[in-house]
Amino acid sequence: MRKHQQDDVMKTTLDLPNDLVREIKLRAAREGRKVKEVAADLLPAALAPSTETKSPPAASLAKTLPTIGATSAPSERAAVLSAQEFCEWVKEQSVAELGSMR
Question: In 3D, which of 4, 2, 34, 38 has the Cα closest to residue 20?
Fold first, then answer.
């Protein structure tokens, strides 16, 4: 928890997404702190240089992708489906599969 002196702060207004503000408020409530204190602690961490190391060698990466179980394959026009259309088809299959489990 970082403490600020009165002379060490600048008051500002930010337009933030509702979900983000809700998460900050929840964290503040859980920690018994003010929203501005939590935000002041989170921002420097987000702005700090990345400490990520280089990517692992390709040999250590998984060689296969997980399979997606579906009750039926897309029609013969599957080769011409856009990525969005394919994603929608997969979602429809998942919803239909969930419905059949009830």
Answer: 38
